Amino acid sequence: MKRLGIIGFGASAIGFIHGLIESGKINNYRITILERGKDYSHNTISGVRMDGKIFISHGMGGEIYIPLEIQAKTVEFYLKFSGYTPTVDKREGIVNYLKSFERDGRKIEFGESFSNEEIYKRFYHHGFEPVKSYFFHLGTDILKETNKNIYEYFSSFENIEFFFGTAVEDVEFGPPHRVHTSRGEFEFDELVIAVGRSGHRLMERLKEKYPQLVKPNQFVDIGVRYELPNHVMDPFSDMYEVKVRYRTKTGYICRIFCQNPAGKVTLEKYEDFTTVNGYSDSLHKTENTNFAILVTTRFTEPFKDPTGYGVNLAKLANILAGDKEKVILQTYGDFKEFRRTKRLGRVHPTLDSESYILGDANLVFPSKIRESLVDFVENLEKVIPGASYFDNLLYAVEVKFYTNKFLNDIVEGLHVVGDCSGWTRSIQYATSMGYMRAVGMKIQSL
Ligand SMILES: Cc1cc2nc3c(=O)[nH]c(=O)nc-3n(C[C@H](O)[C@H](O)[C@H](O)COP(=O)(O)OP(=O)(O)OC[C@H]3O[C@@H](n4cnc5c(N)ncnc54)[C@H](O)[C@@H]3O)c2cc1C
């Protein structure tokens, strides 16, 4: 039996183990999972932190090609482990089958973007690129149980052992691969690195040690979390998320990302700065919808640090907010007219008042990004009336980092999967990438 080490127990590790089980390869290995979190329910495990929105799409979630049947398999896996059961047969068509899943008599929250031709054409006509996709929303509250069920299933295999509370500090690639952890050293014939975005410190170390395995990154996505009343988005509620891209007048591409109907805005805390994010529970609904509006910023030589650029803008917002754990909140109207917000209007923030100050995000964004954001919202108004209400809220800064991509297939017996590989940024893509590596499918970049 080969010794297989898996660092991290998040979406991509889950996909990898699922792939091993399904292909029968599991019997060839003794598997050791090293996870920094205290136990399966510890909140650094992706399942608890994420919003639990799983989608099927070719247009978003990662920069690799995932065949539709693999994406459907991933959705099915999470639905089953979340206590949902199907109510129609697969012969009804894979999407009908997946959206028929129920739990306690309640259907899975499902959405299909741009299934309505009229709406598709309206967006298209106004210069937007609509991204087609299907959404299945498990809900943050249910994901705790999902994690527990998956953990218990994997634990039932005699050749899988978990070491929680074990942070990996360094790795020397072999084979054998040597892994240094907070509880001593391990040696493996094959190694899966699946530490997600929260494992960036380990990844930085490995990238420094093994520069030949790294493809340089040129991108960072910078923008705001935008919040408006639910009724503005109601006409699009059947698609759950309005995924669109738009080339603004600056030449930068701007997009809507991570929409949370009846959701809440939240902080995303890093070691020395804080950004914004959003989520929605399947039970606790609010009167606002939030989503990120992000400007994709691309740099070319000689500048090599897009991540540093994003971090510094986020820090600037924190400095202006007077605290490294606070962000700036402004009404859209004040932002557009270069005025500091002193008073809010009809839209009540869902982020708690301790976490923001009313301010002026114009002091944070370089003009090219600022102009792109305003141009995007103004054009969005043409297809979503109410998108540019004066008192809609924007929280600064939201940043999405692209990690440098890791090149697999250079070191024998090494699999770098999920968000830490730089190739994925979603539950679907991370899980599917893990699955495809485990079963030995070729993975192509987009
Ligand atoms: C607030 C939030 C909401 C999100 N909502 C969604 C959503 O609705 N839909 C969606 O598709 N995606 C969502 N995402 C993104 C999604 O969670 C990730 O893309 C996905 O989990 C990536 O999977 P992964 O396996 O690469 O990493 P993760 O799932 O993050 O797993 C990495 C694991 O590695 C562990 N780890 C890290 N460093 C070490 C170390 N040094 N030693 C040992 N263990 C370590 C971590 O504790 C973690 O458990 C969300 C992310 C956040 C932060």
UniProtKB/TrEMBL annotation:
Domain FAD-dependent protein C-terminal: residue ranges: 243-399
Pfam families according to UniProt: FAD-depend_C
Domain of life, per lineage: Bacteria
Membrane-traversing stretches: none
Gene3D superfamilies for this protein: FAD/NAD(P)-binding domain
InterPro entries recorded: FAD-depend_C, FAD/NAD-bd_sf
Protein name, UniProt field: FAD-dependent protein C-terminal domain-containing protein
Organism, as annotated: Thermotoga petrophila (strain ATCC BAA-489 / DSM 13996 / JCM 10882 / RKU-10) (Thermotoga naphthophila)
